[in-house]
Amino acid sequence: MMRSSYQASQADVSVFDTLGKAPSLSNPHALRWYNHIKSLGDERKKLPGEKKIPSSLGAVANGSPAPAPAAKDDDDDVDLFGSDEEDDTEAAKVREERLKAYAEKKSKKPALIAKSSIVLDVKPWDDETDMKEMEAKVRTIVMDGLIWGASKLVPVGYGIHKLTIMCVVEDEKVSVDLLVEKIQDFEDFVQSVDIAAFNKI
């Protein structure tokens, strides 16, 4: 309902008295206003303002028919909230831009290189094998994606030692089987090669 301010006033009381009965359920806002003014009871007399019906409701209050609504002008038919189609198009555009930005960011990020840490046990033929020479031979193996690490001699028994040597390999570049074969190619020094440990990094 029309009112002179956001606070109930005598103008509200005038309209309330003029209506005489509650608006129908088809006008929920008017019904809520009516029930609010009604709930004030005797407090209505104390509301501020002048008790008069707003000019826009004067004709209705005097029993005259309400003015017919103005003819609808096609130019005034403006959808203030936009159509669903426009919203969908805009949302799709924003989503597309975000996906594109994410793809660009991901493409600039360096790919994670899968690596493995391996411990090899290289066993000699006997106790007369020159272990330092054997290790030097093993370290001559050069492969793209292969890095040799620490090593030590571990006693096996009867004066024989095995060479335990670590290395890190890039999984896509280095075949562990091929690496073992290359070590075993030093037949004068190497009897066998075992993989003591294999861990993904």
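Next protein, fold it too.
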Amino acid sequence: MKSKYVLLASAFLISSATFAQKDELKTLKKIYDKDVPSAKDVAEYKSTVAKAEPLVANSTEADQVYFGFYKSLVPFVEMSEAMAKPENAKNPQAAMKFFTPASIADLAKNSERVTEFEKKSGKQVYTKEIEEMVGQFKPTIVSYAVSLGEQKRYADATSVLHSVYLLDKKDPEKLYYAANYAINGKDYDTALLYFGELKKVNFSGEKTNYFAKSKVNDNEDFFDSKASRDNAVKIGTHTTPRDEKEPSKRGEIYKNMALILVQQGKVEEAKKQIAEARVANPEDESLSTTEANLYLQTKDYATYKTLVLKDLEKNPNSAVSYYNLGVISSTSNPKEAADYYKKAIQIDPKNVDSYVNLAGLELAEDTAIVEEMKKLGTSANDNKKYATLQAKREAMFKKAMPFLQKAVEIDPKNDAATSTLLNVYNYLEMTAEAKALKAKM
């Protein structure tokens, strides 16, 4: 008999706890649903969260999901009360002082749990409201992430942008930027994870951006759609509409994945990933460049050359490809390397590195010549050899000079080109030119 009373008492305690937690959840819902909660409401909300937490642990999935959501909304409720004050009403950025990267991550995780649960249950309570909340606060949260990145708080910026993605999975671009912040913070495992997710959803990031000039300040403004831009031009607030196409980001995504995998010693996996990407996206030229560069990175020059020459058949106007072919040919076949560099310059006349490397090919023997000159004595025969070597060196410098001059003209801040050109001027006793160049350095 006694055991029956114990069981009865236990059942009563459990049912009382369940009843209590239902009351707590109702209180939280009531306060959350207020447009402008008072300071008293905020205090009650926080104390109710603390009271309900131990009760919810053994409750239903629904109670656990909604309680987690309500708990993550504490900063949101605090912000709603504070932002109703006149001093904050016209300053939306003030809202962010109530949030931290951790609290934003918590809100994103619990919001996602709610929408997934409501999709499964077929009964929508907060899904629409969450979507509206995301639409309202997403620009402010993204601005917050950018400011964190500017402060070099890369881990926090990564977390916030990942949260934005969880809140709105229709916008995978935010996950792409989260992965890049992770790279900046040297958190390569997280970057690889996020890039893997982008690969799964086949994100390309290819899009068209819309711009037009404002008549107010003559600045070029960005518009989130063609319709809104065209409307601004139509009503007369803007002029000079311009479209700008953003290329696919797939190549960069796979390049970064490959570099991380190579760093981790998983070279074959990196090659496999890019090969799969090329099969899935045969028209995406950025992936062919990425695949070739992987072989360049791993010093498999023969395969690299084969891939690049194959790609050049389809896209013969890639200055970068010709430049890279020049680099890998410079030791084994300097003449072929020079032809590649010249081809790169023909396509892109401002390809500074090709000019510098052409000069480098002309000056390749300089060190050996100087060493040979140092070994010579003062005999008539040695003096004759010295004069021959000096003439050869002078001829080399004269051949290299136009390439260096062009490189400095294009990029005056190129230290390698400038210092080498100064040495050439000094050796050739071109005093005026050396003085003028030194004044610009």
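About the second fold: Residues 309 and 321 are 8 Å apart (CA to CA).
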